[in-house]
Amino acid sequence: MPIIAKIGRSSPRVRTIMGIFYVLLITGALVVLYPFLLLLSHSVASETDQYDHTIIPRYLHNDTALYQKHVADKYGHRFIKNYNRRYGTIYKAYNQIPKEQTPNKTYVDVWSDFKDNRIPHSMKQAAFSFELHRKFTSPVNRIFRKYTLSKYGDLNAINKHSNQHYTSIQDLSIFHEDFLNNNWFPDTSQRANDWEELKQNIDASLLYTVNGEGIWHYFLSNKYHQNIALLNQAHGSSYKAFNQVPFREKRPTNTQEAIEWETFIRTKWPLRFTRIAPEALASYHQFLEHRYTSIAHYNKTFSQTFKSFNEIAIPTDMHTANASSHLDWRDFFRETIDLKYVECITAERLFRSHLLNQHGNIQRINLALHTSFVHYYDIKPPWIQADWHDVLTNRASYKGYFLFRNYREVIEYIFVHGRSLMVTFIFLTTVLVAQLIINPLCAYALSRFKLRHADKIILFLLVTMAFPIEVTMIPNFITMRYFGLLNSYWALILPAIANGYFIFILKGYFDTIPIDLYEAADLDGASEKDIYFKIITPLSHPILAWMTLRSFMIAYGAFMFAMILCQDSKMWTLMVWIYEMQNWAPPYLISAALIIAAVPSIIVFIICQRIIMRDTGLPTTF
Amino acid sequence: MSAHSFPEPYLRGTNNIYPVIDPALHEICIRDSVNYQKELDEVAARINTKLLGYVPEKTMRWRKLITYSIFLTAVILISLLAFLYIRKHKALLKRLPQQAKIKHFLMTGSLSRTALFMMLPALLTIIMWQYVPLFYSFYIALTDYTINAGSTFIGLNNFIDALWQPDFWIGVKNTFLYVGLTVFMGFLGPILLALLLNEIPVGSMLLRFIYFLPAAVSPLVVSLLWVNFYAPTPEGLFNQISLFFGFAPQEWLQNPRMAMICIILPGIWQNLGIGSVFYLAALKNIPEDLYEVADLDGADIFLKTWHVTLMSIKPLILIQLIGTIIAAFHATQRILVMTQGGPAKATHTLGLEIFYGAFQYMRFGYATAVAWIMGSFIVGFTFMQLNYVRKNRQHRVSIGK
Fold first, then answer.
1. Would you state the pLDDT for residue B105?
2. Which of A571, A577, A568, A572 is CA-nearest to residue A597?
3. Nearest to A85 by CA among A228, A221, A245, A231
4. Which of the four pLDDT bands, split at 50, 70 and 90, describes residue A179?
């Protein structure tokens, strides 16, 4: 205000100049603020939209974005392959999934009901189970850990029962069930059994049904390089997308399709979802005889005591098959078996037969469910529609979940390593208090007592600032080690108590206090202590506030030296933990951590600003 | 070929040869020269020097000669200056006996003891944690120090290493470049901001808060954030902005020519708000009468700003300038986080050379020698600053309004 005189302020020239000032300031503020707002919006993002760089996260107003996030969470962020396998689509990334038309509510409800009640748990696997890192907890793992803890009591009991050595409950997580992979076999460990138990009781929304036809579509799309035209050419058909090719229950008539169908079932179809007709037994025995020549040889290999091959049965326990004991069967399946004995069980087939049983024929199904099926193979569970329906009806809760999830994770992480909060707090308060006592005292002494060598002492205090901290870092480390002070509070606090720069600035401020004040105080009979505490300190609130602000920012943000001096993770400050988080956390989680870490600085700034600006503050000259 | 090849040794630290040998091999491939044996020998000599500290005898004698003479000259120069200074000071004292011997009525013997006690904690702390390590580190610079094994005195060998290390001179060049660019690009910002904020009648509190926000986020954080923005892929923020304006996506931090400027920008962004606090408070202290007088004399805005405002806070500006320069010399943490030395050593400053020398190559003697050389540059600046402040301490401005 001073430069622009008060008089003549309303003249247009002055007004334009003011306007220019405001424009400059506001543009500058927006430029300064923009990265900060980006940081804010990045901190509520997740894998699908972390590169979006918009100020308002898209999923707050765009349903497709919300759907993409939800689905990425559900099927595994980094594995668009899962989604493609499931729905027979060919998207390259989650954030390319387009909008679907409005889902058919009746149909979706019928499917939900069927899914929850009639599909066996062996066909369901955990959704939301992928963790980007075992420290970034998925909802299912959270529930699993709680369940295991309540079942066994505590971590030691869990370790004992399962013969493991978990160091913390965070190490326990469910394994990924890859039901649709015919090379995957579940293990029989205690953890797997616990998970099976939990699966019976868990909330249905946390499980999803595997769909067999998805791997058929995935297989075809890989074979034809994601180009439906090639498939149409080879089959002489006219499908619009891979997920329209039906997975036939009997051998297809079209020769090309038949070849692929056979290859697919033999090589890719998981054994656990097959049902074998008993007529296949005879050919199995023949196969075994051909392979092992004599029953004695077979008995020797497997330590059994069969009298002839006809006693060997088809392995029944396909779900928890021990691979080695079923090698023969798998080879038989892959090479020899006549596929007319094989029935592939898929959720689609179960649903189809259920609907047909209920309604009788396709027309009646169409009437009841408002659908428009034409062929038998058109009847499919509404996979994508069910997910969309879920997202559309639960918009608000999902938005809230995504907004706060990152912050919840970071806060949990900080409190799990809760010591860091206490360490940081003790460190900061001690350093601030020590600096507020020692620095002004020294500066006051230098200024008040007109010592002859005051300048030289100031020089003495300041010269060391010229040297980079690496110079003093190593000898300080050695000194600390010598005194056994490493990994303790002293290591962090002691070097930081006095700061030559602050003493210099403070002395400059104290120099501006007129000598008459001291004389008057002395006349009134004040002792040195009184003068210092009752007169000088209240007068220097602005400069002390400035010093507090500066000192807080330095102490709070320091991590390089702190990391070297306190290598034990028990003594790490907040900043060191956040720096360490970089090693494993995804970028949006780090953004959330940074925002949380910025809050104390802002609070301290607001407090100190008010004190600084309340009085006129710092002098212009020294 | 296999008859002449040896298995690659793998011990701890052997991967340190790759930063030296990779660019050399790359160059050999590019230039496709015939005489690559000679170049490989050169690289081998360089690695020997850098990692093992091995230098052939003849070169060593020549270097020792040069370094010892430089050192001797420096010592003689400093003692000469000190001697002259003390003589001048004594002369001054003789000339103005009154001022030199003023004993204020409050200053008695016991009070100077009080003064000493008041200063003692600060003095002790600084002596203990700054001076002692400083001299200890000078001692380290003269030895061949390793953390666990013993250390042997090797004289000025570390300094010799430093002076003949190409990385050192690259570091010097980059350090001065960094400091120069920081001052050129980032010094005037806070002053301008303080001037503007001082003028506007309404909303200054809010604006001050907004400008402060970047500083609330710690420097480490800001560096990481801007590394994210500088992503060279088309999805990186700055590339999206440049595409929006029609420019091609850049490499930002990967480009050796742009990397230096890219590193400095976050510092400027952060410093605007908090740097202006000091200036703002000082601006409030300029007496209004000066402005009125200037107005009466018919000064327009620019003249008023220059002659009244800026001249009044000139000492502050100069102090801050020197403070900025010193802080820029010390900015290692930010460069470490953002480019770790930069694409092809484009941002490899002396601070980084010290850090890597100490914590990656484990050559503490060498690192402290470089640190001392760097420190002696800056001590000069500190002396200048303090000299100037002392001369200007005549004015006393009363506090409170």
1. 42
2. A577
3. A221
4. confident
Of the partner residues B107, B197, B228, the one whose CB lies closest to the CB of residue A450: B107
Nearest CB to A539 within list B102, B237, B399? B399
Percentage of chain A modeled with pLDDT above 90 = 2
Residue A247 neighbours by CB distance under 10 Å: 25
Strand, helix or coil for residue A57 = coil
CA dist list (Å): B227 to A533, B232, B234:
47, 10, 14
pLDDT value for A216: 85
Residue type, position A356, single letter = L
Whether residue B140 and residue A474 make contact (CB cut-off 8 A), yes or no, is yes
Token output for A228: 């439906």
Euclidean distance between CA atoms A111 and A355, whole angstroms: 10
Q: Are B324 and B186 in contact (CB under 8 A)?
A: yes
Would you list the DSSP string of B69-102?
HHHHHHHHHHHHHHHHHHHHHHHHHHH-HHHHT-
Count A/B contacts: CB-CB distance under 8 Å.
320
- Mutate: best of A1, A3, A51, A410, partner B, most B CBs <10 A: A3
pLDDT the model gives residue A482: 84
Residue in chain A closest to B310 (alpha carbons) equals A620
Q: Which residues of A touch B325 (CB under 8 A)?
A: none
Structure confidence by residue, pLDDT tens digits, A294-334: 888 878 877 777 777 777 777 766 555 445 557 777 788 88
pTM summary value: 0.76
| Substitution target from B221, B319, B335 for chain A, most A beta carbons within 10 A | B221
Q: Is B273 within 8 Å of A33 when comparing Cβ atoms?
A: no
Nearest to A463 among B119, B304, B382 (CB): B382
Mind telling me how many Å the CA of B142 is from chain A's nearest CA?
Answer: 13
- Asked if residue A221 lies in contact with residue A84, where contact means CB atoms within 8 angstroms, the answer is yes
Contact B122 A461 (CB under 8 A): yes
Is A612's CB within 8 Å of B281's CB?
A: yes
Low-confidence residues in chain B, pLDDT < 50: 97-109, 394-401
Chain centre distance of CA A293: 56
What CA–CA distance (Å, rounded) separates A524 from A521? 5
- Return the sign of the alpha-carbon dihedral for residues A100, A106, A111, A113: positive
Q: CB A582 to CB B351 under 8 A?
A: no
Residue in B closest to A491 by C-alpha: B129
What SS3 state is found at A274?
A: strand
Which candidate in B113, B207, B228 is best for mutational testing of the A interface (most A CBs within 10 A)?
Answer: B228
Task: Say which residues have a Cβ less than 8 Å from residue B24's Cβ, sequence separation at least 6.
Answer: B39, B40, B42, B43, B46
Q: For residue A183, what are the contacts with CB-CB under 8 A and spacing of at least 6? A: none
Q: How far is A21 from chain B (nearest CA, A)?
A: 6
- Taking each continuous run of H as one helix and of E as one strand, the counts in chain B are 20, 2
Neighbours of A7 (CB within 10 A): 10
Residue whose pair of structure tokens reads 């005189």 in the numeric block: A5
Please give the Cα distance from B321 to B309 (Å, whole number).
17
Q: Among A24, A539, A575, select the one facing B218 at the smallest CB separation.
A: A575
| pLDDT value for B298 | 82
C-alpha–C-alpha distance, residues B196 and B186, integer Å:
16
Q: Terminal CA-to-CA distance of chain A, rounded, Å?
A: 24
Which residues of chain A neighbour B229 with C-beta distances below 8 Å? 35, 38
Q: What is the pLDDT of residue B400?
A: 32
The length of chain B in residues reads: 401
- Using the beta-carbon criterion (under 8 Å), do A474 and B364 form an inter-chain contact? yes
pLDDT in tens, A11-65: 788 888 888 888 988 998 888 888 888 888 888 888 888 777 788 888 888 888 8
Q: Are A223 and A260 in contact (CB under 8 A)?
A: yes
